[in-house]
Amino acid sequence: MSRSVLRVCLLLLVALGRPGAASESDQDQGEEERTHPPRKGLGHTHWSYEDRNRWSEDYQDCRGTMQSPININMASTIFSPHLRAIQLSGYSLPANERLKLRNNGHTVFLELPQSLAITGGYAQQYRAVQLHLHWGATTGPGSEHTINGHRFAAEIHVVHYNTKYDSFKEAMVQPDGLAVLAAFLEMGPRDNPYYQELLDHMQQIQRDGEEVWVPGFNIASLLPVNLKYYYRYNGSLTTPPCYQAVRWTVFNQTMMISRDQMLKLITSLRNDDGKPLQSNYRQIQSLHGRRVLASFQPTFFAPKQLPAGTASSAAPEEHSSSSFQAGDVLAVLFGVLFAITALAFLLYIHKQRNQNARLDSPIKSKVIYTAATTENTA
After folding, report:
1. 0.85 exceeded by the pTM?
2. Were both Cys, which of 67, 69, 120, 317 would link to 285 (CB 3.0–4.6 Å)?
3. In what order do the strands lie in the sheet with 150-151?
4. Active-site residue identified among 36, 44, 82, 106
């Protein structure tokens, strides 16, 4: 073999066999990843409310036709006499039962014992798993569902799974797997002592992943006292993976918390990027022909009524501000009549005072009235 050929072979061997060349490159790349970790993408392990318009790119179910939340148009709801009052079991917990409250980067999340259950209002029994809240920011409200286009200050969700399945994980991919009880929150004049049970601990879980144990209390007090009046429809989880497995119950009555409590809710927590955790709600989704049932007949926007004996296709089964019922309408009418009467009386008094003022005005000549004389005719 010629010397030139040998020289070429040796050069190739040196180039390919430099000790540690490839390993040093890999080591440098690994060091770069440790010191500057790659930014979390959407993926199936992470999502963000800032990227909610892109959820459907990574989660197929988020593109479905039975997504939540929705706007509930009261005039389009269908009254269903088959919808019975929601009945709860085991919701009143003793103080010595500890509950885990956690900031999961998306919301405040309270784990619930499986002794809590929905025992009425659905065809099956559903076991509680957790509750969480959605809220806005100092610039605006943040409920997920809306009523006639109105968005409330905040919204609470109590999540349950169907007991015919062995676990929440198994149930969450089944069409009848989950039941969520939802209620709206509004600002009122006084603190709500039951919501204070959660808000007292918000400062302890400011950062993503932080958790604290809280004493048990009556979880039912976070929901309206009257559980007879609600809307029902088939929908989905409102966060990825958006599984279309939820029988939604949205109560017509709202819960009241004080302005200070609302401020604490929307300013206490931070997300996984260290930013204030605010406006953690999803946009309204299209109904795509779904029907929304009502367990009652609103007075001002009377829903259509299902014919007698008709089964509901919108659902296979089947404490707080007021809903508009007949008694409320009468009270409003009497109040309006009283206000009109009072206003008319005040206007009359004002008119009389103005007339007297004009008569007594120093810039006008006074009129002296004398008694009429009597003419003697005799």
Report:
1. no
2. 67
3. 71-72, 146-147, 150-151
4. 106
